[in-house]
Amino acid sequence: MRRREKYLSLFFLLPSLLIYALLIIYPLYETFHLSFYKFRYIERKIEFVGLRNYEKLLSYELFQKAIINTLVFDFMATSLQLLTGFALALIFSRSFKFRSIFLPLAILPMVMPAAVVCSIWKLMFDYRFGILNNILASVGLPRLEWLTDPRLAMISMVIVDTWQYTPFVFLVLLAGLQSIPRELYEAAMVDGASRFDIFKNITLPLLMPHIKIVVLLRIIDTFKIFTKPALLTGGGPGDATETLTLFFYKEAFRFFELGIGATVSVIMTIIVGILSLIYIKRVRL
Amino acid sequence: MKGVSKIAVVIIIIAILVGALAVYFFMAPAPKEEVVTIRVAAPAGYHAESIKAALEFWEQEYPNIKVELSTFGYHDLYEKIVLSMREAKAVYDVIQIDDPWMPEFGEAGWLANLDELAKQYGFEIDYDDFVDTALWVGRHPYKTGPQLALPVCGNVELTAYRRDLFEKYGIPHPPKTWSEVLAAAKIISENEPGVYGTVMRGMRGNPIVSNFLPVLWAFGGRIIDDEGNAVVNSPEAVEALKMWLELAKYAPPGIESFSSDEVKAYLYSGKAAIATEVWPGWVGKLDDPSVSQVVGKVEVCVPPGEKTSPAPMIGVWLLGIPYNSEHKKEALQFILFLTSKRIQKLKALYTGYPPTRKSVYEDETVVKKYRWYPVQLEALMASRPRPRIAQWAKVESILGLYLSKALIGEMTPEEALNAANKEIAEVLKG
Fold it and tell me: Which domains occur in chain B, in start order?
């Protein structure tokens, strides 16, 4: 009986396993396989080169810069989004006047297409006419070269991404906050706990699982940043905002160097895999 | 009783359906002439607009050749064309090609020979009227090979300057050398409040390279020499880059991310005295008071020379027929239609689309509307193409990166060009 059940369950799982194999395992294998070849799609030239693609990329300065930039961006954007999202969630977890008006407004950035977000921000970042510099100038501060100062360009990118994806963190954490039983707070208040104690001993520990998962999702998603550097800076100035995805896109779809493109994506997969594994181990998710 | 009526209902429905089908088949008109549909891939924006304008005439004159137009953004178009070429059946019958793509497409054997097609179907292509430089980029190998595509958009780099300011400060115009441009930029930016001396495209990638090339060429520098060696770190090139960086000092802050939109904004608002690089598509509305604050004040000229005569960069768009198209005759008819004198004139007048025929540039009504057209023709005839190599996209990307590094001061001109040259040499090795 047990055995039959096992086989039966396998049988029912089969379709989804097949789809998984076809859509995930096979392309993954193909990409891995391709990364050992020099493959110029337009000339239809295929040549086995062993590990030379990896060698070439890892010793290429622009590619190294792309790895560092992507990691730095990922770290900065994820932390900032967690902070602002958490703060927003705390504000919105209580009821206040016009909450029902502000709530959809707070979510708005997330539902906008990235291309629209970029053109809006490009205007706001403009040196002469942009609203950000106008505000700075009106309080007597110097105007900033948001997108064109190599030291500032990446931070501007972080600001745009934070603006767009804070709502995601905010929503997940708000749902978490609302699932904490009210009785716990009432009991704590009866016992005379201070607000900070309540936050430290009830809110934070009970919200932890949500925080852990939302950070993991943001780490993975932020790693794939593409539209913002592509539209705002083109990876410049210099190589200040070159990211792995930008590098990949150019190799694969502008130069049609599919071997190199595959190698980039294998390296990306390894990096993001290691990052997530360390994170999952560390926070015991 | 109930069962019977159900069956009856089903029978009646079937009878009605059969009857309707019979009527449809008997009444349908017999197909008269065969209608052929050709599929066209073109860049979105003003290119697509001009084709749509021409289509209104096409549909009246060629009712049996339907045109299905697909438009894409620049990089998308390239990607779509490349991917479509690997299909067994043609996806497109006519493709619009940016001239730097030609060597790659030509080498891959993707384009049908238009001379042979014309002979086969009995059409005549009047090459004499087309601007030579525009025709040459449509041949593979460059200039000498068979015609694989016909130029449809006569884009060429020009320079625009505020004539009123040049006259106000007694500067002779139009500027003949880049040194004169630099001197003028200095005088105007120091004396005219709120106006920058120059405005340039400094965004990494294609914009910064396109902006730099005319200066490079004017100093006698080149990216690749006749033997196919990378020579972008030559003394002439270094000197050119130094001049270019000097010019950039008089440009507004933030040019490191400037592309066409920003240059146009500064030009149209009158906040920049000289736009070192403008394209015909950007200047069309300079005399239109609803969008321009400098009506009648801006003059367009052939980009300056320096050590050599002026060398504006050509940026022509061409129309070609994929080798695997099944409607080559109709496709050729469409290409001949779009590049004909009559349609080019209409497109120029209605949408400001840059022609590729001398006769259209010299046409009285056209010149009356666009006063700089004689200059544009002059620039086109003196123009130079980007290096005719299949790896141009990579070379441009490398040069774009290091020019950007020089612009932000991360590298000196010598360092940047040496680094670029080393990488370009590697790409050329294959």
Answer: 36-155+315-382 (3.40.190.10), 158-313+391-429 (3.40.190.10)
